[in-house]
């Protein structure tokens, strides 16, 4: 009887055996706290102020609307190349004050045009990317205007404290065109991926190297998500801050 009770307790406390069956692998763990907005709200309480920010890979505008709620009155440049989502993006952002500046373009290390790949429904294609994908050719491919983030910031005399990059594997391309911003932006929120779904996608190592080489440190990891097939980490968001940020001024533990 005692043995049965102990075995039942062990089964309850231990994580599922990854060799049993796929339905047990993730144990419902497809996402993990904390959320990005919770951590930036916390940073605000610690004195991190945002008067201007860039939402790069804005899609339908959810991030821009949320950051505008956290920092009322902040100026936002929202950048999204997908032509099919522009109407929804504008509709979702129309009553924000001041009005976000919406740019229909992609960002990379140089100016010009590039092919933008859209798999599935163009109105719901959160996986759309400048990168190719292991699943093969995109059902929709559009030629989009491309510029560097440095050029965009200079054009609008924009000096953001916060830049968010959600580019489905093309984050390094964007950062390679951001040498000036990497000298001044206090915080970057950058999507990372651990799988090789996108060909030549930005790796966590590349992102860490770029930011550490530019006097940033890893401040937080948020929005981690796991694939249901085997519970493997598929990605999340890195938060990097400048070493000179007041968020890094305290060195003790308690």
UniProtKB/TrEMBL annotation:
Keyword set includes Heme: no
Species, as recorded: Geoanaerobacter pelophilus
GO biological process: methylation
Keywords: Methyltransferase, Transferase
Protein name listed in UniProt: FkbM family methyltransferase
Biological classification of the source: Bacteria, Pseudomonadati, Thermodesulfobacteriota, Desulfuromonadia, Geobacterales
SUPFAM superfamilies in the record: S-adenosyl-L-methionine-dependent methyltransferases
InterPro entries, per the entry: FkbM_Methyltransferase (IPR053188), FkbM_mtfrase (IPR006342), SAM-dependent_MTases_sf (IPR029063)
Domain spans labelled Methyltransferase FkbM: 55-216
Short name of any one Pfam family annotated for the protein: Methyltransf_21
Keyword 4Fe-4S: no
Membrane-spanning residues: none
Single annotated GO MF: O-methyltransferase activity
């Amino acid at each position: 009887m005692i043995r049965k009770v102990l075995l039942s307790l062990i089964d309850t406390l231990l994580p599922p055996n990854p060799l049993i069956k796929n339905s047990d692998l993730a144990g419902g763990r497809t996402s993990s706290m904390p959320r990005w907005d919770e951590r930036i709200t916390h940073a605000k309480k610690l004195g991190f102020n945002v008067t201007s920010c860039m939402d790069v890979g804005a899609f339908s505008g959810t991030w821009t609307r949320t950051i505008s709620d956290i920092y009322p009155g902040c100026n936002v440049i929202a950048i999204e190349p997908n032509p099919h989502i522009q109407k929804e993006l504008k509709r979702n952002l129309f009553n924000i004050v001041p009005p976000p500046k919406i740019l229909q373009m992609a960002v990379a290390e140089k100016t010009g045009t590039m092919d933008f790949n859209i798999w599935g429904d163009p109105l719901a294609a959160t996986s759309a990317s400048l990168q190719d994908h292991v699943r093969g050719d995109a059902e929709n491919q559009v030629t989009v205007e491309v510029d560097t983030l440095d050029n965009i910031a200079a054009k609008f005399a924009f000096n953001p404290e916060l830049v968010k990059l959600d580019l489905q594997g093309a984050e390094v391309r964007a950062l390679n065109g951001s040498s000036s911003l990497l000298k001044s932006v206090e915080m970057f929120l950058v999507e990372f991926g651990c799988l090789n779904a996108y060909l030549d996608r930005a790796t966590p190592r590349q992102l860490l190297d770029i930011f550490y080489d530019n006097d940033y440190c890893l401040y937080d990891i948020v929005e981690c998500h796991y694939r249901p097939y085997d519970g493997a980490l598929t990605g999340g968001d890195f938060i990097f801050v400048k070493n000179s940020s007041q968020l890094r001024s305290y060195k003790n533990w308690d």
